[in-house]
Amino acid sequence: MTKIAPLALTIGEPGGIGPELTLKAWLRRHEDGLAPFCVIAPLGIVEQAIKRSDAQVPFKVISDISETATVFDTALPVLVIDEPTADAVPGFASADTANVVLESITRAVELSKSGAASAVVTNPIQKSALYDAGFKHPGHTEFLAELAGPDTVPVMMLANAKLRVVPLTIHIALSDVPKQLTADLIIKRCRITAASLQKDFGISNPRLAIAGLNPHAGEDGAMGSEEQTIMAPAIEALRAEGLNVIGPLPADTMFHEEARANYDVALCPYHDQALIPVKTLDFHGGVNVTLGLPFIRTSPDHGTALNIAGKGIARPDSLIAALKMAAEMATKRLATGA
Question: What is the assigned CATH class of domain 1-153+292-338?
């Protein structure tokens, strides 16, 4: 495998399961063949997590991310940020630790943009606690886009070993979807998705499948007109650009195994239409990938799980999958010079 720079892992919400997952992922570094990563966090938060852990994970403070590879085999590398913080209480998200959450993300992005890190992998954050501290962004992805620079258009992709999906609209009421689903939106999302599949996943001619909005993809207008008036013209324009796009397809018949063999990614008009099949196929192994950024970013496909934080029962599968996918994407980019 081509040697890549270390992965930069953010600490996420200190009161959530992120610190626990970080320790468990490092403990499975050999079993799962993980590329070297360092966690970016105040030393106190890491020490607190280790004290609560059944396995006393060895750690080593590093002064530069370049030290990660030499440390990783025998200790968890910790790149310390000196942000003042209150103690993290498992199960409770606090505005008092918001500065730590945001500084960890900012530092990871800086390292990745400079080339010192090959990718950013983010532990989950608790937006409500950040809002209480004055956070102005709708969410994690929008903050990353601002850090990435002007004119950045982030696109969410959820992926596992069986399926990749892109929701064309995200976190809006179902009644608002037809208002936001424009031909321009579809075209932009498809372009970004196709470019990323080429650059980050090594797919030379990505096959994109677009799901219809209405039952049976509108059934020739009998159950809705968006497929004919919005989606079909967008697909025609994309094909004219040379993109390999099919659809709009009935969503109820495009996610079984035989159908999935015909495309590399499914783009769906609304949030749950995309997330239900990917989570059904592999609930614990899903990865959230942000396309359209100048750096690689992956994340576990779950939240902070405050209800189980500190109990030692959180599963690290999704974080491990996110670390592995980030390394695979970085390897593809390095090999192709993208």
Answer: alpha beta
